[in-house]
Design brief:
It comes from Deinococcus daejeonensis. By secondary structure, the chain is an alpha+beta fold. It has 18 helices and 25 strands.
Length: about 600
């Protein structure tokens, strides 16, 4: 692939000398073999698939329309096993400290009494909720779902940019990206050792059920409605978990419990996975003009008769001013050294730091502490003098509401631009998703957001950003090369991947010419390519794709056949039981699961 990584920013795929990093070598080979024109054609298929499936997001106040397809770049962002282990440890440490902090400040507030964090900073936060002080959620879990934004600086170090604890969004795009990639570029995954992500919704449902005040509780996803920017995600998660998607008008409080209106009568609700901010949850407790929430919900929550994820009041911990103290929380609650560092942060409420912020605005990035999605920002080096002066007026009026950070040169990644028909460098960040309960579950990957506007450092979708599929490998690379037979038949076991000979395979099967051996001489079904002859690189890549799609189709057909077999009327057993080693003792379903479904893996 033709690509110029440059030397100013850390490049995820290439070294400064232009060589592909070890864990990217398999993908580089695949892209070179596929060719730009075929890659472009499949990129168009991805756009069409996203449009047909309604994978969209909403931009408020945009003259081009509110709803649009979520931009997606198919060059995957790849993280080797050792790097992911470091990220995973750092995120686990961080979420434990944040949950301990929330438990503390809504009870004894010991950390404030000890002067580790200024009490003024916490109690003046717009997201601190006195209404739930003294309320301990089920299991003591405040932060059920956390999305932490990570960036990589010029030296390649992972830094935490911010924590998202209220209702972090984007995980549906992570899951949709992987599903689309495996269908449109199936051969790209062959032999790479990519860890699956599709178990996220199962893990989320398990976590939500564990917080239910009743056994076998009822879980719902509470959405503001179809005009919300993340409505696709709300509907997607509800559908994948098999639970109801509800709006505030679908719920009501009666007899100290929350009920859902259904066509079969009312049904008690035990767990609410809310995608609504605290302000709108209950008009009797918070904003009285809210038509999105449920009147009386907070009272039921205080009585412990309904669980809410994430818990009410978690927003104080993702206040961008409180974020600056998370390393201190880690030392205070866990007695550990932070594994992942913060980006250096200046606080407007501190007089000395405010003076520095005002004097160096042209070199800093300003953020409003309560905003998200890229709104309320000022990037000093990219702003005009008039824009800076207008923004600083707001900072002077209410300094508590602003922080500033130095400009960090986000790492870059090869990205395909259809208008130029080539690969160019674009800045990226990473949002992994953490499920916190009795155990900590981190999906191996995350949402890699990419700044598609050339030269931009802002990756948010509302500001012209898109996303990439994020791979976490089970090794550090390079991936073991696959032979032609392995590409055709999907045998990527260690013995095969490292060159097990044909005679070894033959002897393992008891001698003679095996089916695999005879098929490997000629495979007419995949394009009539003679396997012993010369094959072009592009044909090899396309052959891998066809083979992968063929195996996926065969697995789907096998599952359908197994289901049909299992639905047949049972056959009366024979008069005498079969011997224990008799083949008839095992059903077709069991044999299918043993021999064929095992190859399908978890990532379906």
């Amino acid at each position: 692939m033709r690509y110029e990584p440059g030397s100013r920013f850390y490049d995820e795929m290439f070294t400064a000398l232009g060589a592909a990093r070890a864990h990217y070598q398999g993908v580089e080979t695949y892209l070179d073999a596929l060719g730009v024109e075929e890659f472009r054609r499949r990129h168009q298929l991805l756009d069409l698939a996203f449009r047909n499936q309604g994978i969209t997001f909403t931009v408020y106040g945009d003259a081009q329309g509110t709803e649009r397809t979520f931009p997606f770049d198919p060059v995957p962002r790849i993280i080797p096993a050792s790097e992911w282990s470091h990220i995973e440890s750092g995120l686990t440490q961080r979420v434990r400290a944040l949950n301990a902090f929330l438990t503390d400040i809504y009870s004894g507030a010991q950390i404030l009494g000890d002067g580790v964090i200024p009490a003024e900073l916490v109690y003046t936060s717009a997201h601190f909720r006195r209404e739930v002080h003294g309320v301990l959620p089920p299991g003591g879990v405040f932060t059920h779902v956390v999305g932490t934004d990570l960036i990589r600086n010029e030296q390649g170090e992972y830094l935490v940019l911010e924590d998202n604890l209220r209702s972090p969004s984007g995980v549906s795009y992570l899951l949709a990206n992987r599903q689309a990639m495996t269908r449109v570029y199936p051969g790209m995954f062959e032999g790479q050792g990519v860890r699956p992500v599709q178990h996220y919704t199962s893990a989320l449902l398990k976590l939500l059920l564990a917080s239910s005040p009743r056994e076998n509780g009822t879980v719902v996803v509470l959405t503001p409605g179809m005009y919300n920017s993340a409505y696709f995600e709300h509907a997607y998660l509800a559908q994948q978990m098999g639970v109801e998607l509800v709006e505030g008008r679908d719920l009501f409080v009666d007899g100290g419990r929350v009920w859902m209106r259904t066509t079969g009568g009312r049904r008690q609700v035990d767990v609410i996975y809310r995608r609504i901010d605290d302000d709108f949850l209950d008009p009797l407790a918070f904003r009285r003009d809210s038509a999105l929430g449920v009147a009386g919900l907070v009272d039921v929550y205080r009585q412990g008769r309904v669980a809410i994820a994430n818990a009410i009041g978690t927003g104080v911990a993702d206040d961008k001013a409180v974020y600056a103290y998370v390393p201190d929380m880690i030392r205070y609650y866990l007695n550990e050294t932070p594994i992942l560092n913060n980006v250096p942060t200046y606080l407007g409420w501190n007089a000395e730091q405010l003076e520095f912020m005002l004097a160096n605005a042209k070199d800093l990035v300003f953020k409003s502490v309560g905003e998200a999605g890229g709104y309320g920002m000022l990037i000093g080096p990219a702003a005009t003098r008039e824009e800076i002066q207008a923004y600083l007026e707001k900072v002077r009026r209410d300094p508590r509401d602003f922080i500033a950070q130095p400009v960090v040169g986000l790492s870059r990644h090869p990205t395909f631009y259809p208008d130029s028909g080539g690969f160019e460098a674009a800045h990226v960040d990473l949002r992994p998703y953490v499920l916190f309960g009795e155990d900590v579950t981190i999906v191996p990957g995350g949402l890699t957001r990419v700044a598609l506007r050339r030269g931009s450092l802002v990756v948010n979708s509302s500001q012209g950003g898109g996303s990439k599929d994020t791979w976490v490998l089970d090794h550090d690379g390079p991936a073991a090369p696959l032979s032609m037979t392995q590409l055709l038949h999907g045998d990527t076991s260690p013995g095969q991947a490292h060159g097990q000979s044909q005679s070894q395979r033959q002897s393992a099967s008891g001698g003679g010419q095996s089916q695999t051996q005879s098929q490997s001489q000629w495979q007419g079904g995949f394009g009539a390519v003679p396997l012993g002859g010369e094959v072009s690189a592009q044909s090899l890549a396309q052959l891998a794709d066809h083979a992968a799609m063929h195996r996926a189709q065969a697995a789907d057909e096998a599952q359908v056949a197994a289901y049909g077999e299992s639905q047949r009327a049972p056959v009366p057993p024979p008069p005498a039981p079969a011997p224990s080693d008799s083949p008839g003792l095992h059903s077709f379903q069991q044999q299918l699961e043993k021999d064929q479904l095992a190859a399908d893996g978890e990532d379906r």
